[in-house]
Task: inverse folding
C-alpha cells in the first residue's frame, strides 16, 4: 500500500482499513476468512477461490455465501426438481415456467395469468406479524416482476397444537400480519388453509400465494440486456434488515461480540409496496423497462447477479449510490440487506428521466446505481464489478453466483418406520358401534381445531376489495372475474379464474408419494367443482433438513408423486418454492407439500358455489 | 348529459376503481381525480373511496386531509357539492372537520369483514333519497379503525338533528358509539359511512345490490335523468 | 441536531381498547397492583438545527393529535 | 396513587413506516426543518399504592414491548 493514507484523518484510515478491496484480496491470500461461519463448506470455499483466482473479498464472500445457500441455490433439491420439467405435460399455454420469478400461463391470445406459492416459515416464527406480512409482500413482488397486476392472495398455514402457549403467540401475529399487508395492498384474500398439528410446534408454516393478470404483450423478464443500459433501484431505502448472517464479516476478529449486528427483523410497509406496484405498472405500460427483478431474501446480491447472469453480460455498480437508512452500513451489508419493497430495473438511458418522473409521481425513491457492461471476449458472460466510493470490492462472473452454485446428490434412505406405518392400518381403529359412541365421535370431531370454524381468522381478511371476487370463503376455491373481459358482447360473460391451495402433512407422512398426489388432486377437484378447467399448478415443498437421508427420501418421493400426478392430470407445475430445515433438533415436521391449482372459467357468471342453492334440489353423490 | 362523479385517488386508495365501477353501473360517468391536483375537473359530486391512504399511519385519514385536492374539496363541500366518504373516505371527512367525530380503532382491535345489516335512519341526504326511511339494507363492512366516536354533546346533537344516516343492526362490528355507521353534515350534502356500498352493486360479486341506491340517489339529487341500473 | 418529544394520549373519557387488553392480561402475569393502563404515542421529532418548539406544536396540533379524542404535551429532549 | 411511564420505541435499525409517512407529509404542512420522525408508544401504568418499578419492568418486558424489534425505558412519573 502507498503512504498516502498517512495524511488522512484517523476516521478515514479506519474505514479504509476495514474495507476489503479486490486489490487487497489479491495481495493477502493468507487472510483467514469466516467462510464456515457463513455456512460455506471447505470445498465450496476452495471453489470460490478457484473461480476468482484469489481469495474473495469480504463483500464477495458475503455474496457467495448467500447465493450458494440452500435457500437461493436449491443445491439439495435441484436434482429432484428436474422431474417437474421432465414429466410436465407439454403445454402451449405456458409463457414462462420454472426458473422465472413466477410461472405465466396464457388465458387467451391477449391475456395471461401468473401465480406462485412461497414460504416464509422461519421469519414468521421469530416475529409472527412482520414475518407473515413480509411473506405476503415478497410473493406479491414476484408476481409484479412478471409484468402482472397482482389481483389476489391466499395463505396456507400450519401451526402447532392449538392449546400450546406458543401457538397463542404465533397464530394471532401471523394472521394479523397477513391481514395487515394484504388488506393494505388492496389484494383480496380468496382462500387458504389452517391446520393444527403438534409436528409444527417449533416450525409453523406460512405459505403465501399471489396471483396476477397481465396482457401477454406486457410480459417482463429479468435479463439485464443491452450494454449501456442503466441499473435503477426503486423503492424503500436500504437498511440493516436481515443481515444477521453476514454480520460476522463486520467484526475484525471473528470472536468479537457482534450483538450490535444481530439479525435484524425486516419490517414490511405495504403502503410503499402499493406505490411500487402502481409505479411499476405505469412504467411497463409506457415501455420504460428492459428488465426487472424483485429484491427478495437475498437483496441486491441476488438481483444484481441474476439479472446480469440472465443476459450473459456484465454489470458495473457504484454501490455507495444506494440510498441508505443507516449511513454506517458497509458494502457487504448493503449487498446482503433484505430491506423490503425494492425492485431492480434495467432501463435504456433515454428512458431514465421518464422512469424517475413516474417514481416521483408516486412518491417512490428511484436511483441509478449502475450500468450494463459487455460480455468478456473469451465468452462466459461478463463481470459483475461493484465499487464502493471508487474502490472495487467485487469483481466476479455473475453466473458463478447465480447459476454455478453447488449441486448435491444428498443421501436418500427410506425411514425405518415405514413398515410399521404401513402395518398400522386405519381399518384396525375401533369404530363407533352404538348411537352413544357415534354421538361422542361426532362431538369429538366437531370440537377439534382442525374442523372448527375458521371465521376468527378469515374475517380479518378483506376478500372483496377490487370488486372482482366471485367466490371466496367459505368456498373451497376462490374465483375472480378478470375485469374488462367479455364486456363488449353481453352474451359472452367475463372470464374468470379459480384457485385452490391444499396439502396434508399427515397423509404425506404416511406416504409422501401418494400424499403429494392427494394434495394436487384435492386442489384440482376444488377448482373443477367451481366449473373451472384446471390448467396449471404451483407448489411449495415444506420439509425438514435435507442433510437427513430420511427427509431427503420423503422429498424425493413427494416430488416424484407430484410430477407423476401432473403428467396424469395434464397440468404443469409452473413454479414453486422449497423450504428445508423445518425441524426442531432432530425432529422434522411432517413432510408438507402444498399445491395450488389454477383453473379458467370461460364465463365467470356460471361459477358454481358450494352450498345447497334451492329448496327441492336433488342431491347426487358422484364417484365411489 | 349524464352526471359526472369524481373519485379521488390518494396514494394507498384501494377501492377507487370499485367506486368508479359503481358510479358507472348506476348510470353516471366516473371521473378520476388525483390527490396531488387541486382541480375538481367540473364534477357534479365527489367520492372519497376506501383504502389505506398514506398507509393509514398515525390515524386513518389524518395525512390525506392535507392533500392538495382537499383544499378545493373542503370549500366545494361547504358550498353544497355532494361528497360521499366511504370507510377511509369517511375518516378523511372527519379529519377534515367536514363531519364531526372521529373513527378510532375497533374495540376488539382487529380488522373485521362481514356482511352487515344497516338501518337507513335518514333518507333525505344527497346520497340516500332512494331508500325508504327506516329501510333495512345489507352492505359489507371491513375495517380495523371503524369505531365512531364523538363527545356526548355532539352525539346528542347528531341524533336530535337526524344526522345519523346509517345504524348497525344485528351487532355492532366495531364498538361504534350508539351503533353509528354513517353520519351527514347539517346541509345533508356530505355523507360518510364505514360500510362499503360500492361492494354491493353486482350479483356476481356482492352479498346484495343494496349499495346501488346510494349512487342512484346522488344522480337523482343532481337532477339528472340517467337510466339507473343499466 | 435537537429533538422534540411529543406525547399524545387519549382523553380520559375515550375507550382505550389496547390499554384495557393489557390491563386484563396483568393478573395472568401475577401482577395485581396496577389499576389502570393507558397507551398513547410517543413521537420523536428531530430538527436539523435548533429545536423549534413552536413548529413542533403546530405539527402536533394539525397532524399528530386529533383534538376530538386526544391531548398532547411536548418538550425538548435534553438528553439528545 | 403512583404512575410509572413506559416509553417503547422501535430499535434504531428497524424501519418505522409510520414515522416515514408522517415525515414525508410535513413539507405539505409547510414544515421543512424536521429531518426524522419516529413513532413509538407511551404507556401509563397506574399503581394502587407505591410505584413498583420492578413489577412495571416485568410488565413492559412481557406485554408492552416486543424485544425482537423494540426497546423500552421506564421511570416513575414525578408529576402524578
Ligand atoms: N388461512 C386462510 N386464509 C384464507 N382463507 C382461509 C384460510 N383458512 C381457511 N380459509 C378459507 O375458509 C374456508 C373454510 O376453511 P376450512 O374450515 O379449512 O374448510 P374446509 O376444511 O372445508 O376446506 C375456505 O373457504 C378456506 O379457503
Result:
Amino acid at each position: 500500500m502507498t503512504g498516502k493514507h498517512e495524511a488522512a484523518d484517523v476516521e478515514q484510515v479506519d474505514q479504509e482499513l476495514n474495507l476489503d478491496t479486490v486489490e487487497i484480496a489479491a495481495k493477502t491470500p493468507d487472510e483467514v476468512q469466516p467462510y464456515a461461519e457463513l455456512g460455506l463448506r471447505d470445498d465450496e470455499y476452495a471453489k470460490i477461490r478457484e473461480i476468482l483466482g484469489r481469495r474473495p473479498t469480504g463483500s464477495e464472500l458475503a455474496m457467495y455465501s448467500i447465493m450458494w445457500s440452500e435457500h437461493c441455490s436449491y443445491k439439495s433439491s435441484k436434482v429432484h426438481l428436474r422431474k417437474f420439467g421432465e414429466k410436465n405435460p407439454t403445454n402451449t399455454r405456458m409463457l414462462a415456467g420454472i426458473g422465472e420469478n413466477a410461472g405465466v400461463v396464457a388465458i387467451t391470445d391477449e391475456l395471461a395469468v401468473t401465480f406462485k406459492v412461497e414460504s416464509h416459515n422461519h421469519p414468521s416464527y421469530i416475529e409472527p406479524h412482520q414475518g407473515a406480512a413480509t411473506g405476503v409482500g415478497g410473493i406479491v413482488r414476484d408476481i409484479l416482476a412478471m409484468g402482472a397486476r397482482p389481483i389476489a392472495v391466499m395463505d396456507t398455514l400450519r401451526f402447532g397444537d392449538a392449546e400450546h402457549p406458543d401457538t397463542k403467540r404465533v397464530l394471532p401475529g401471523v394472521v394479523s400480519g397477513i391481514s395487515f399487508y394484504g388488506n393494505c395492498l388492496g389484494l383480496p384474500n380468496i382462500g387458504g388453509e389452517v391446520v393444527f398439528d403438534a409436528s409444527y410446534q417449533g416450525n409453523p408454516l406460512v405459505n403465501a400465494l399471489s396471483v396476477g393478470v397481465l396482457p401477454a404483450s406486457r410480459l417482463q423478464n429479468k435479463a439485464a440486456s443491452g450494454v449501456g443500459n442503466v441499473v435503477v433501484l426503486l423503492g424503500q431505502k436500504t437498511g440493516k434488515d436481515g443481515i444477521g448472517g453476514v454480520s460476522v464479516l463486520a467484526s475484525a476478529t471473528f470472536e468479537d461480540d457482534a450483538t450490535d449486528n444481530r439479525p435484524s427483523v425486516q419490517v414490511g410497509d405495504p403502503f410503499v409496496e402499493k406505490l411500487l406496484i402502481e409505479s411499476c405498472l405505469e412504467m411497463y405500460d409506457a415501455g420504460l423497462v428492459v428488465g426487472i427483478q424483485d429484491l427478495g431474501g437475498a437483496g441486491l446480491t441476488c438481483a444484481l447477479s441474476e439479472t446480469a447472469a440472465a443476459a450473459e453480460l456484465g454489470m458495473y455498480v457504484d454501490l455507495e449510490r444506494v440510498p441508505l437508512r443507516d449511513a454506517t452500513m458497509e458494502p457487504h451489508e448493503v449487498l446482503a440487506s433484505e430491506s423490503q419493497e425494492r425492485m431492480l430495473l434495467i432501463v435504456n438511458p433515454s428512458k431514465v428521466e421518464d422512469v424517475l418522473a413516474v417514481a416521483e409521481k408516486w412518491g417512490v425513491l428511484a436511483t441509478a446505481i449502475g450500468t450494463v457492461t459487455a460480455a468478456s471476449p473469451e465468452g462466459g458472460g461478463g463481470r459483475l464489478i461493484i465499487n464502493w466510493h471508487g474502490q472495487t470490492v467485487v469483481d466476479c462472473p455473475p453466473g458463478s453466483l447465480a447459476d454455478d452454485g453447488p449441486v448435491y446428490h444428498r443421501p436418500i434412505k427410506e425411514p425405518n418406520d415405514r413398515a410399521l406405518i404401513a402395518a398400522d392400518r386405519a381399518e384396525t381403529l375401533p369404530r363407533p358401534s352404538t348411537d352413544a359412541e357415534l354421538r361422542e365421535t361426532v362431538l369429538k370431531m366437531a370440537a377439534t381445531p382442525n374442523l372448527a370454524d375458521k371465521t376468527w381468522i378469515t374475517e380479518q381478511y378483506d376478500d372483496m376489495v377490487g370488486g372482482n371476487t366471485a367466490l371466496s370463503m367459505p368456498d373451497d376455491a376462490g374465483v375472480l372475474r378478470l375485469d374488462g373481459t367479455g364486456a363488449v358482447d353481453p352474451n359472452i360473460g367475463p372470464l374468470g379464474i379459480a384457485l385452490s391451495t391444499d396439502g396434508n402433512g399427515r397423509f404425506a407422512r404416511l406416504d409422501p408419494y401418494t400424499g403429494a398426489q392427494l394434495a394436487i388432486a384435492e386442489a384440482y377437484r376444488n377448482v373443477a367443482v367451481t366449473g373451472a378447467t384446471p390448467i396449471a399448478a404451483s407448489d411449495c415443498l415444506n420439509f425438514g433438513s435435507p442433510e437427513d437421508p430420511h427427509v431427503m427420501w420423503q422429498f424425493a418421493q413427494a416430488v416424484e408423486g407430484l410430477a407423476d400426478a401432473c403428467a396424469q392430470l395434464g397440468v404443469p407445475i409452473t413454479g414453486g418454492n422449497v423450504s428445508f430445515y423445518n425441524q426442531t433438533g432432530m425432529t422434522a415436521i411432517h413432510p408438507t407439500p402444498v399445491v395450488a391449482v389454477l383453473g379458467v372459467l370461460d364465463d365467470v357468471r356460471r361459477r358454481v358455489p358450494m352450498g345447497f342453492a334451492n329448496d327441492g334440489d336433488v342431491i347426487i353423490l358422484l364417484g365411489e | 348529459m349524464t352526471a359526472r362523479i369524481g373519485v379521488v385517488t390518494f396514494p394507498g386508495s384501494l377501492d377507487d376503481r370499485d367506486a368508479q365501477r359503481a358510479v358507472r353501473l348506476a348510470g353516471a360517468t366516473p371521473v378520476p381525480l388525483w390527490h396531488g391536483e387541486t382541480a375538481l375537473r367540473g364534477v357534479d359530486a365527489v367520492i372519497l373511496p376506501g383504502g389505506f391512504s398514506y398507509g393509514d399511519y398515525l390515524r386513518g385519514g389524518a395525512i390525506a386531509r392535507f392533500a392538495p385536492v382537499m383544499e378545493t374539496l373542503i370549500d366545494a363541500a361547504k358550498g353544497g357539492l355532494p361528497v360521499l366518504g366511504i370507510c377511509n373516505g369517511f375518516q378523511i371527512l372527519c379529519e377534515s372537520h367536514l363531519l364531526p367525530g372521529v373513527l378510532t380503532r375497533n374495540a376488539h382491535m382487529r380488522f373485521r369483514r362481514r356482511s352487515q345489516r344497516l338501518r337507513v335512519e335518514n333518507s333525505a341526504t344527497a346520497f340516500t333519497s332512494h331508500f325508504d326511511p327506516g329501510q333495512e339494507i345489507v352492505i359489507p363492512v371491513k375495517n380495523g379503525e371503524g369505531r365512531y366516536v364523538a363527545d356526548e354533546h355532539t352525539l346528542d346533537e347528531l341524533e336530535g338533528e337526524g344526522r345519523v344516516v346509517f345504524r348497525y343492526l344485528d351487532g355492532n362490528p366495531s364498538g361504534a358509539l350508539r351503533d353509528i355507521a354513517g353520519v351527514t353534515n347539517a346541509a345533508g350534502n356530505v355523507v360518510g359511512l364505514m360500510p362499503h356500498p360500492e361492494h354491493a352493486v353486482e350479483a356476481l360479486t356482492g352479498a346484495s345490490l343494496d349499495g346501488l341506491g346510494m349512487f342512484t340517489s346522488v344522480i337523482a339529487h343532481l337532477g339528472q335523468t340517467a337510466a339507473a341500473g343499466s | 441536531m435537537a429533538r422534540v418529544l411529543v406525547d399524545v394520549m387519549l382523553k380520559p373519557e375515550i375507550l382505550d381498547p389496547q390499554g384495557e387488553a393489557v390491563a386484563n392480561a396483568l393478573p395472568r402475569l401475577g401482577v395485581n397492583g396496577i389499576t389502570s393502563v393507558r397507551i398513547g404515542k410517543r413521537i420523536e421529532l428531530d430538527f436539523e438545527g435548533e429545536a423549534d418548539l413552536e413548529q413542533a406544536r403546530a405539527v402536533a396540533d394539525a397532524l399528530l393529535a386529533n383534538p376530538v379524542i386526544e391531548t398532547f404535551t411536548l418538550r425538548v429532549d435534553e438528553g439528545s
Notes: The two ends of chain D are 8 Å apart (CA to CA). The first strand of chain D starts at residue 2 and ends at 10.
